Amino acid sequence: MSSQDISEAFEDWDFEPGSITVRKILGEDGKEKVQMRVELGLIQMEVTGRPDGKRPNGFESYLDYQKAERDKYVLDHDNDYGFVLNVEECAQLREESLYYYYRYLSLFHLNEFEQVARDTNRNLHAGLFLRQYAEEEEDRYAIEQYRPYILMMNTQARARLASTEGRQYDALGIAKEGRRKILKFIDENVGLFGISEDCLEMRILESLEQEILLGLPEDSVENLRNELSKAVAAQEFEKAASLRDRIRSIEGNG
């Protein structure tokens, strides 16, 4: 009989209070897994699909299943009026979103930014889905209350991915866009979640923006103006704003 004792799996992997300790391993099925060390053991997650590897009702996630149910309702009724998620269904969506949270938090510390962007985007959709269709008031904001945090993580992932690919001005535009989205959420939900414009998420993105600015190459104003023209023509307004800021900064120091 094979042993069910898992202590050997983290015998030389100590838990560090106050820090996030993660690693990737190769599973017995030949696929990569993500492991997060927690105080009483570890959490193991699949890298793709639902983190626990399950397929609710044959779908990649329970959110995908409920979206399909909503779409079927719309086909039968020509609209989504009357489609609601009961307390149990909302609980399943909250629990599933927690799985994705653990994974994107782990992947962020492994610099797997593309996957972090994917998982945070998924949880942003889950929050909106609950807000729109939850039957009970308290369930509507169960995930939405964390939107600034999820937006911050999504923005960091996308900006850092752009930076690693050498797209510094895109990264700066993404950082600015993330701050704008959080401010918009705060303005639209004044008094609902107790979040201010000086929240931690905004400060983190302000620091990210400054970090990107310091790492920008000293391009010539002429080249920057060419890039600005292209961005305006392509209606990439966040990128255009970043380029204008850079041009003003260079000209101001000249």
Summarize the structure in short:
By secondary structure, the chain is mostly helical.
How are the SSEs ordered, and which strands pair?
Layout: E1 21-26, E2 32-38, E3 41-46, H1 62-77, H2 87-109, H3 113-133, H4 137-140, H5 147-164, H6 168-188, H7 200-214, H8 221-233, H9 237-253
Antiparallel strand pairs: 1-2, 2-3
Helix pairs in contact: 2-3, 3-5, 5-6, 5-7, 6-7, 6-9, 8-9
Helical run tally: 9
- Profile the largest sheet: 3 strands, antiparallel
Radius of gyration: 22 Å
What share of residues are in beta strands?
Answer: 5-15%
| Mean of all residue-level pLDDT scores | 90
What structural class should be given to the helix and strand makeup?
Answer: mainly alpha
Shape: globular
Strand arrangement within the widest β-sheet reads: 1-2-3
Helix content: 55-70%
How would you spell out the order of helices and strands? EEEHHHHHHHHH
Which spans of ≥5 residues are poorly predicted at pLDDT below 50? none
Distance from N terminus to C terminus (CA atoms, Å) equals 76 Å
Number-wise, the strands total 3
How would you sum up this structure, described in words?
The protein has 254 residues and is mainly alpha-helical. The chain has a three-stranded antiparallel beta sheet with strand order 1-2-3, covered by helices on one side. Helix content is 58%, strand content 7%. The radius of gyration is 22 Å and the shape is globular. The protein contains nine helices and three strands. The protein starts with 20 loop residues before the first strand and ends with a helix.
